[in-house]
Amino acid sequence: MKESSTRIVAVSNRLPIRLVQGPEGWEIKPGAGGLVTALAPVFKNRGGTWIGWSGGTNDADLAGLMGPASREAGYTLHPVPLSAKEVADYYYGFSNEIIWPLFHDLQTRCNFNPDYWYQYLNVNRKFAEVIARFSRDSNYVWVHDYHLMHIGQALKDLGVERNIGFFLHIPFPPADIFMKLPWRAQILRALLEYKLVGFQTLRDRRNFIQCLRHITSDIKILGRGPVVTVTIGDKEVRVGAFPISIDYAAFVRDAESKEVADLAWYLHEALPDRQIILGIDRLDYTKGIPERLEAFRDTLNRFPELQEKITLVQVVVPSREEVPEYQALKAEIERRVGEINGQFTRSGWVPVHYLYRSLERTELLAYYRLAEIALITPLKDGMNLVAKEYCACNLEQNGVLILSEFAGAAAQLYKGAIMVNPYDVEGVSSAIHQAFYMDKKERRARMRKLREIVRHRDIFWWINIFLKAALVRDLHAFPAIEDYILEFPLESQK
Ligand code: GDG
Question: Are 253 and 223 within one domain?
Fold first, then answer.
């Protein structure tokens, strides 16, 4: 199979589109996620197909819209129709009440309901049927993320042979956590039905291989470096670490625009003589928002001289709002914001500016440009693209990135960022203090380093290395160990 000309079939839980209710019924608009933006030009060049759920539960309404939407996108879209019950048990249930918390090391939040598992199998089989129908054996089928770990197995059960690879966007947990999953062996065996399994970091890959050792002793690892070959019996699977990234050039270009520059100036003018600390997260308990607010409160208590000199702008993007756990998290965040502002606000200074909404791209980039400090402290995160986007947009190179040790991005960015344990309230607050007083020279040196890494290892590089690992016959042709697979050394060296 040739790398450059192989037609790709991308498969993800959601199609890269948004459904919008227009005056004459549903309208389809292009999606805006990083993966869509990255894959779209590649697909346009070599042709491609995207398979996924439309986001609705009445696909009959959409049937006539997919053709025009595909023509507009430049690649073909095929929806996998799902009923409300399937969405409830496969998506909200198995994916988001079991795999999401478990893979972020939060096993006490898991609801191991067996019905969810059966529905997960059922929906993965439905995806496999659509793949079987709309792909050929000369295609490369690239499956994305934790909702669809069983597709390789489902295709095999259907007797369909494809060159198929999988990329996990979230972390893979250590064995003592993963082994709590009642369906652990089935999931591991299903993942071995892919020809390539990709993770964000070496840490995730090591966890995966350790879990495999729990279900079999007949395992060999061949090779070294970012991609290795795992053999189990007569099965051979490539397993690699491929840190996802952003379209660096597009972020720089847009951040340079007059619109973004003007808005950044205007927003900062409203908060003169202060350093702005920025937090941007989807509403999710993995992002460590309450812990971060505690650290900010601690900063104001322990370093009172910083009062009126720092402002935390915390953007929380609404997500999974119909789930009670997320409603409770929102209430908790709002309670803490209220307490901090109640305690510290002075005339002309409100310590926390809290925005509960999604920002337009221009506004998002303006905040990235203007913030002197980015405070990115997830409890655990596959990668965290916000960290990379902040660096790309920091054109003046005067920003400081404070980053969680438990974000996948730590492996690449730890040398330029101030690294923190998000559970360590005083550690994070000391990092804020350090960032506040960091001089221009050090800021510039660190930010340069960070931007260089993100520029060099952008989203196009990511697509290329994944496809190379999937399609080269001989892994010796694969690049040797390079900076991108460095691991964050937890205690030894910071
Ligand atoms: C999963 C993994 C992994 C955020 N707020 C706004 C907005 N965003 C955009 C950001 C960024 C994206 O959303 C968030 O990406 P993250 O990587 O931070 O997080 P997840 O959504 O949890 O994604 C993660 C990722 O997959 C990719 O593999 O990095 O670890 O959990 O691109 O810019 N965009 C706009 N307005 C906002 O208010 N327009």
Answer: no
> Which of 144, 169, 204, 458 is flagged as catalytic?
169
Res 298 pLDDT > 60: yes
Q: Give tens-digit pLDDT for 118-148.
A: 999 999 999 999 999 999 999 999 999 999 9
Q: Is residue 197 included in any domain, yes or no? A: yes
Closest to 165 in 3D by CA, of 99, 92, 242, 247: 242
Handedness of CA 478, 481, 484, 486 (dihedral sign): positive
Per-residue pLDDT band at 258 (split at 50, 70, 90): very high
Same domain flag for 167 and 218: yes
Q: What is the pTM of this model?
A: 0.95
What residues contact 122, with CB distance under 8 A and at least 6 apart? 86, 90
Whether residue 92 is predicted with pLDDT greater than 60 in this model: the reply is: yes
Contact 40, 73 (CB under 8 A): yes
Among this protein's residues, is 381 annotated catalytic? yes
Buried b or exposed e, range 151-176, using 16+ CB within 10 angstroms: bbbbbeeeebebbbbbbbbbbbbebe
d(CA 187, CA 434): 44
Q: CATH number, domain at 87?
A: 3.40.50.2000
User: pLDDT by residue (tens digit) across 57-66?
Assistant: 776 667 677 8
Domain that holds residue 7: 3-241
Q: Determine, yes or no, domain membership for 472.
A: no
C-alpha 394 chain-centroid distance: 21
182: nearest Cα among 126, 253, 99: 99
493 inside domain: no
Rounded to the nearest angstrom, the distance between the alpha carbon of 149 and the centre of ligand 1 is 21
Place of tokens 């208590």: 301
144 in active site:
no
Question: What is the count of structural domains for the chain?
Answer: 2
pLDDT 10s digits, 463-477: 989 999 999 888 776
Do residue 296 and residue 433 come from a single domain?
Answer: yes
Q: Check if the beta carbon of residue 143 is closer than 8 Å to that of residue 130.
A: no
Closest among 89, 5, 15 to 47, alpha carbons compared: 5
Distance in Å, CA 242 to ligand 1 centroid: 17
Tell whether the model's pLDDT for residue 350 goes beyond 60. yes
Ligand 1 atom nearest to 284, measured from its CA? 22
Per-residue pLDDT tens digits for 281-295:
999 999 999 999 999
- Distance from CA of residue 325 to its chain's centroid? 21
pLDDT band at 22 (very low <50, low <70, confident <90, very high): confident
